[in-house]
Amino acid sequence: MKLQQLRQQIFHHDSSALLIFSDINIRYLSGFSGHAATVLLTEKNNYLLTDYRYVEQAKAQTKDFIVICRQREKQSLASLIAELLQKDNSQLLMFESGHICVDQWQQIENEIRCLESIEQIEAVTGAAERLRYIKYDQEITAISQAAQIADQALANIQPLVKEGITERELAIELEYQMALLGSEEVSFATILLFGERSALPHGIPSNRKLKPGDLILIDFGAVMNGYRSDMTRTYVFGKASTEQRQVYRLVRNAQQAALDALKPGIKGHELYQHSADILLASDYKNYVGEGLGHGVGLELHELPFIGPACGQSIEKGCVITIEPGIYIPGWGGIRIEDDVVLTENGMEILTRAPRDLLEL
Questions:
Q1: Residue 93's pLDDT is what?
Q2: Is 212 helix (H, G, I), strand (E, B) or coil?
Q3: Which of 19, 25, 169, 243 has its CB 3.0 to 4.6 Å from that of 128, i.e. a possible disulfide?
Q4: Residue-wise pLDDT tens digits, 27-75
């Protein structure tokens, strides 16, 4: 289905061909989860090109693909591609220009331009990514399973939150819990920050020790069947101050405003504005993070990128994050992030850890 959709989307020439270099797009279209692969789609065939390290895996994971094992010492990738294009008499070659370096592409192009059959070479961008925008049921299920693992792992580490533990130690424990619960890997490098360091939106866990009154910002995710979750929670170690409660309530209200407005067909910039109207009218308007969220799936950051310039519509089957935040240098930051999907029955929040301010 995915492969056929891509063909219908971009094959407007009887002798078209498409080269796909992105590991993520290859997995999406073929099911192959390894590396060192290139996909060549022609009007006649679907080829997956790899080497001896992955050939058996590719045969096991794909269907409707001809898997070719390239002997790297005897044949270059460029010459193999040229050979297959000539065999299938391809005339128009399109290629993913955003997923190959200039040097490698020049090698391929030099081989291809020697072919008499090739009449045109055309760069394409975002073809598979646009298909990935709307998730199938099995994709949503995988993201939901990853979110459930993250929820449980977060609950499992809360008893470890004690004075003197470092950011790095707690981050390692969180990642360990996700692995025990079945996560294939971490969705991304865990962001776990204490106190004033929580004002770093994507800070790296350090040896900073936890102290009473600290904010604790945790941004992390799990992976199931290649699909990623992404959640942020912010806590207070000990009793929250009046200002901590005030800022948390502000961020929580901004997130809820976006969640309440979410419906099929709403533009990304419209959704952003519902949250921004609350944050930018506050005393903390100078500390508001840019944007509201992003799509999530096989990659952590996918279409749409929700912000003031986002003209894309949010449709049924989209899985997005809603993550407003306020970051005050020297004081700390508060972000609340959830994964949300639009379904036939409305909106569903996939990340279910409590969103109320917890004093640990």
A1: 94
A2: coil
A3: 25
A4: 999 999 999 999 999 999 999 999 999 999 999 999 999 999 999 889 9
Question: What pLDDT score was predicted for residue 206?
Answer: 98
**Burial level of 209, CB count in 10 A (0-12/13-18/19+)?**
middle
Distances (CA, A) of 250 to 43, 92, 281, 285, 333: 55, 54, 10, 11, 12
Q: Which of 252, 246, 204, 26 is nearest to 132 (CA)?
A: 26
Question: Please, which residues bridge with residue 66 across strands?
Answer: 47
Residue 338 pairs in a beta bridge with 322
> Residue 305 corresponds to which amino acid?
F
Q: Are 339 and 328 in contact (CB under 8 A)?
A: no
Q: In what order do the strands lie in the sheet with 191-194?
A: 191-194, 215-220, 231-236
pLDDT of residue 259: 97
Q: How distant, in Å, are the alpha carbons of 18, 150, 235 from that of 77?
A: 15, 40, 51
Q: In the chain, where does the domain assigned CATH 3.90.230.10 lie?
A: 137-349
Distance in angstroms (rounded) separating the CA atoms of residues 48 and 65: 6
Q: Is there a contact between 326 and 250 (Cβ–Cβ < 8 Å)? A: yes
Report the alpha-carbon angle 9-14-18, nearest 5.
55
CA distance 207 to 150: 23
Give the chain's length: 360
Architecture of domain 2-131: 3-Layer(aba) Sandwich (3.40)
Per-residue model confidence (pLDDT) at position 227: 98
Task: Supply the DSSP symbol for 312.
Answer: P
The low-confidence residues of the chain, meaning pLDDT below 50, are none
Q: What is the per-residue pLDDT for 97?
A: 94
Residues whose CB is less than 8 angstroms from the CB of residue 144 and which lie 6 or more positions away in sequence, other chains included? 341, 350
Question: What is the CATH T-level fold of the domain 137-349, as seen in this structure?
Answer: Creatine Amidinohydrolase (3.90.230)
Which pair of structure tokens corresponds to residue 75?
């044949």
Cβ 272 vs Cβ 238: under 8 Å: no
142's CB contacts (< 8 A; 6+ apart) are 224, 225, 226, 227
What's the longest Cα–Cα distance across the chain?
75
**pTM for the whole thing?**
0.94
Backbone angles phi, psi at 44, to 5 degrees: -100, -30
